Amino acid sequence: MARYPVLRGLYELEKTIGCGGFAKVKLATHILTGEKVAIKIMEKRSLGENLHRVRVELDALQSLSHRHISQLYQVLETESHFFLVVEYCSGGELFDHIVEKNRLNEKEARAAFRQILSAVSYLHSLGFVHRDLKPENVLLDKDLNMKLIDFGLCAKPSGGLAGFLYTSCGSPTYAAPELVLGKKYLGHEVDVWSMGVLLYALLCGFLPFDDDKIDTLYKKILDGKYEEPTWLTAESKRLIRSMLQTDPKKRIKVDELLSHPWVMRGFREPIPVNYSCNMKEYDSQCVNLLARHKNISPEEMWEQLNKWKYDYNTATYFLLLNRRRRGLPVRIFGPGATPFRNYRNNLPLATPIDSQKVDRGNELDSIRSFTTPIKRPLVDDSTPMIPDKRERTALTPVNEEWSTVNSSVSHAPVTRHQKNVYQVSKTPAKAPEPPISAPNGKKRLAKRLHSPGPDESPASPRKFLNV
């Protein structure tokens, strides 16, 4: 924490949970609420000419509020760093989940794909395109719901979705043919191609177009031919083909995907176009509690919040509202309150020390820990206490409403991956090394490091990102 004084008193930094070319992500505790968050830390000097991409990402994240998009809570900027406080997703990357399972069955893949499609459809409805859709940019929360992340390469064409883009960016193995050729393109058509590659990876465990040589990879993409494993159903093959059309005009549209028979199977209704979870709505319970803490009137509190500065007040309100929507009691800690993890331990206010059991070298520390009174947080007791644990079989279709899981419904035993998901905050599970090749000789899914590309249209396909 000493390295980042701007976070002092606001967040308690913990371990590093992610690292990329320009940023690292730290797990942290929001001190006022005791909630876990992730903090994306970017050094301006290392960003160089890509500094403007942070502004683009912030513009997008401050406009988005969707249950399958990682929520932005707070933005802090210093002379040397950006700090983006975002929703913590303890389930890790979808990529690692695929690697661990080798491939997902159709029911699991459909549940994951529906949620990703819901997020992308919402993104497009606001005029944004993602341009870097892949399993590494989809996280799982503790309930194994998909959360789309990494909007550094997103764009909002000035002419809306019908406006052309020129920057070749993203990951080559997920790139549409028009990107490879360096032509102007429509962002929403590129996103559909990437989702087709992503769905193929979910169902097959390897990529439709892959090669160690970039020239060969591009030829495969431009040719548009790929293997269709025998385990794919006829309906799955048809859906993937409709997304991986080399001619973007023949490619299926997002609106058509929402009600596609494969996507609809097992579900009563198509995916809603606008599936937002408005985090900027007025909630009297959360506003009143925060006003009590600040010792001001609820009206004054809401006037401050309603400016949506994405400061500490915004973060606190969003975290309280998120707890309330999950059916948990909303509470904040007053000045000097003990962190929430100690409050949950229900330690006594004062306990006599048995001198026979105290190690003499640690006696002073023991006396302090047992005699310091624990200050209880401010709690709104009108909300019933509901355990904050909801087990589901990995990637099964979920009830996409703000409601708690019905405890009377029987669930399959928790799989090894689920146990890792719930324990990740204590002992993160390391995904097993993927086999070199699949039974059919295809290479298993593998990560490819990349960094943002140039803004100008590339002179040739070789100026593609990652190359």
TrEMBL record:
Source taxon at top rank: Eukaryota
Record-level GO BP terms: intracellular signal transduction
Enzyme class: transferase
Chain sites annotated for binding ATP: K40
Domain Protein kinase: 11-263
Similarity field: Belongs to the protein kinase superfamily.
Protein name per Swiss-Prot or TrEMBL: non-specific serine/threonine protein kinase
